[in-house]
Amino acid sequence: MDVLRELVHRQLTEAVPQLQRYCQQPSIAAQHIGMPETVEFVVKMVTKAGGKAQVLDDCGGNPVIYAEFQAGVNGNQDKTLLFYNHYDVQPPEPLDEWTKPPFGAEIHDGKLYARGAADNKGELVVRLNAISLLMENGGLPCNVKFLIEGEEEIGSPSLPAYLAAHADLFRADACIWEFGSKNAEEQVQLVAGIKGMCYLQFWCHGADVDLHSSNGAIVDNAAWRLVHALASMKDANNRILVDGFYDDVAPLPPELLQMAEEQPFDEEKLRQQLGLRRPLITGDENPNIHLWGAPTMTICGIESGYTGEGSKTVLPRRAQAKVDCRLVPDQSPEDILAKVRKHLDLHGFTDVEVSLLNGEHAYRSDLSHPFVQMVVDTAREAYQTDVVLAPNSAGTGPMYPFGEYLGLDLPIVSTGCGWWNSRAHAPDESIRLADFEQAILHMVLLMREFGEH
Ligand SMILES: [Zn+2]
């Protein structure tokens, strides 16, 4: 083990400059900046690590890169591990809030600062260097494939088409998802699924023009209509009132309830970090149970009329709201949309329009699959610290299409090299090089274990 740690440490002389060069290459999908150059860069990294890359561009959007590494002569030819990464990053704005240049990849106090360092250029470099190390020291213990897309930060619109068209290419026995981080307790956080998404837009039109508000004596008001419509969908105790909304929500199985209990939730810390003014809406229940297993309905924004300085007496002609519902396994975004539509009609809001802006199904790996425990055990060994596993993240990502096209029994676990203050999507995004090094060791140990079992 000490020899291995030493090998990983030596690998950094290659891995760190490579990570810096990769982070210095902007690849902002939303702004169409640097995408072809980044594809070329990734292909070169794959080739340098000893793999074969194929750029797929037959399904539109930014290309998807397929990479393949063969198991060595002593490796297990029958086992294939799939890594999911993306080469695009979020826009760096607001630029004046960065204390280091977002594409400078400067290193200060053991941290590398760059847009995309934690999400998830660091992870790709970790994985490729773990592969290089294994290839140079006895050969790869298993086959490895990569799916590296270029549209994750804009919602992965083309990904399902690529998975559908090239399912045979990406077929694998298990999958490591894009990223992960240590929490504020310095525990390694692993996640084996994600929640789904039903993102809704509501519109209410009351007139062709804004009116003098004296007309409030006789004319109905679009903003009030929308507020009443929204209020009809959730009560003051945060119970969602849309008929059938909870029909497909299964209670968490006993083993997950037990996991939830075993993972302490520091409400006070959260309260201080976020400056929360109200108690958590979970009451006496364990918040983990809700984060993992309860669907949500969140008003993300409401807009109508005048909200500028001072007063303006106006009766707005229209109002809109954006609402997201985080879904749990077996709920479907299209079905939720239909139920919301029916609810509005039944409550007399036939004039309130609703449409689905984006929908995604939840995904949860079978936690009893040996691969899940293998990722946990090897993480503990590599990081020498506590490892906490969540059955799914409270957030959303394009995990379901992987199951849909590669098999719904595909175990998927997310892990990476971030830390609790990595600030993904925000100014001063960073990773700590010590975590980066441990993450390489984790991937080395995992591929070895995976090849043996
Ligand atoms: Zn990401």
From TrEMBL:
Q: Name one GO molecular function term.
A: succinyl-diaminopimelate desuccinylase activity
Looking up InterPro entries in the UniProt record yields: Cyt/Met_Dipeptidase, Peptidase_M20, Peptidase_M20_dimer
The residues covered by the Peptidase M20 dimerisation domain are 200-346
Instruction: Tell me a GO cellular component.
Output: cytosol
Q: A biological process (GO) annotation for this entry?
A: lysine biosynthetic process via diaminopimelate
| Keyword list, A-Z | Hydrolase, Metal-binding, Protease
Superkingdom field: Bacteria
What is the protein's given name? Acetylornithine deacetylase
